[in-house]
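Re: the 259-residue chain
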Amino acid sequence: MKGVYETKKKDGTVYYRSSITFRNKHISLGSYASSEDAGQAYLEAAQILSGSVTVGDYADDGALSFQKAVTLINFRDNDVYIKNPIYLMKRYFLYYCDPETVFKFDIDDLFFYSSHHISRRGGHFFVADYGMQININTRYGIRRHAVLNRDYRFINGDRFDYRYENIDIINRYFGVEKRVKHGITEYRAKILVNGSMIIGTYRTELEAAIAYNKAADLITKQLPDKNYEINYIEGIPPHTYADIYTQVKISDKIVNYSS
């Protein structure tokens, strides 16, 4: 069958590879247990590349995988072959994990997602980078264990729209919560010991983040098995951090607990 090639695994098992050439580019369509499935994948790819099939039209139950179909549709329409399931728009691009899960990213992120595949585990999405699985939220300043609509929000309400202008970081530091009381913004710092303990309330987010670090340091001296994630503070010199760390006040309960 056209576009189908028989091959063997190391153990001698026969399987079939399917491929197609379009605009002088040889494109692998996948591996199949039968020549019929491999041939069907070729036919579906040929129909996409020679016709006007859109992502919305493509049936997810075809021999050709949905993600490969997205790749071919993008190549046909935009003349750019990208191995991941990406469709280019004018100023952003779509990344299709499946027909119902479609991310939007700024065009500045195209190089990264062209070479990093998004995987799902539970309700979280990851990319593999340098042998580690990294939650995609971390690329956008959203800290681990942050809670949607408390610590960050998507301005247009679309939780798959990761364009930078759509992400609003409310609480960027561990243990820090922004509060508005009588029209005044304040930042409360809390830490988990045997339950949640209030460290204090501060005028600035920076003070609250450093107060959390100070409380974590005090408690781990007494309880070395505690493994707190420390806030990394950018944009201030070390002596400024040290001055705030020394002067910031924390709850007597924590001071007494640590001693």
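The chain is about 25% helix and 30% strand.
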